[in-house]
């Protein structure tokens, strides 16, 4: 496993395990425990995934089994749009995530979207960071122009920006902006989110064969080699283990460029953040009373 050092000197694993859409509590707990047994130490959840409690249970199970200590784990969660109404609602959301997960602190906490009053929400996160409830703070789905304005405004700049990053949406300009502000890029849907049929791509299969690796392993390796943290998701133990096995090979510059050629730009996105209907959906979605 390789690590990246955040601006506050916290070390973050370059590969983690995501639990988006794993809504069944027992399935989520089992999958996270399988991931930790495999060697993953970064676990990524969110208030809107409604499985923070299952992640917390898996963490306690792993510690009880002696697999790892709490300090060796890096647990991430995110504040949903509903709670970004004000400083006070954001403060309550942070405490709710801690309570649901049963953890004394979160290693990373993110604003899930650049919506509603995210500046007031950020101030609540800054305070929770100073109090030690959050070891690092960051954002998610902040496009370059939004991230630039944000970094130029807030007191504590975000340490991470979790965005969609895969060979079909490479976001090179976004990575340049993050590098300018020392923000670490983290990829959701690093394998393309089930679209584009990458596992049938002959070029990707050829590169994989050259390294005795699968297409999935090649895609994940491509992202980490350009400095992107990846959080693949699976509920199948064999795939969980396969996704983790990316640290014993290196793609050549030519192979990296060939994979870059798959980029489709904004057309290749899974979520259309510039679509007003999507923004209205996020603003209207309630995850609690």
Span of the ends, CA to CA: 40 Å
Q: Work out the strand percent.
A: 5-15%
Order of helices and strands: EEEHEHEHEHEHEHEHHEHHH
Fill in the CATH topology.
Answer: TIM Barrel
Coarse structural class:
alpha/beta
Shape: globular
Largest sheet: 8 strands, parallel
List the total number of helices: 11
CATH superfamily: NADP-dependent oxidoreductase domain
Order of strands across the biggest sheet?
A: 3-4-5-6-7-8-9-10
Number of domains: 1
Q: Low-confidence parts lasting 5 or more residues at pLDDT below 50? A: none
The radius of gyration is 18 Å
- Tell me the total number of β-strands: 10
CATH class: Alpha Beta
Give average pLDDT, whole number: 97
Second CATH tier, the architecture: Alpha-Beta Barrel
Helix content: 40-55%
Could you walk me through the main structural features you see in this protein, from its secondary elements to its overall organization?
The protein has helices at 25-38, 52-64, 87-101, 118-130, 144-151, 172-180, 202-211, 215-225, 237-244, 253-260, 276-284, and strands at residues 3-5, 11-13, 16-18, 42-44, 74-79, 108-111, 137-140, 160-164, 184-188, 229-230. By secondary structure, it is an alpha/beta fold. It has one domain (10-284): NADP-dependent oxidoreductase domain (TIM Barrel), CATH 3.20.20.100. It has an 8-stranded parallel β-sheet with strand order 3-4-5-6-7-8-9-10. Helix 3 links the parallel strand 5 and strand 6. The longest helix is centred in the first third of the chain and has 15 residues, at 87-101. It is globular. The termini are far apart. The model has no long low-confidence stretch (mean pLDDT 97).
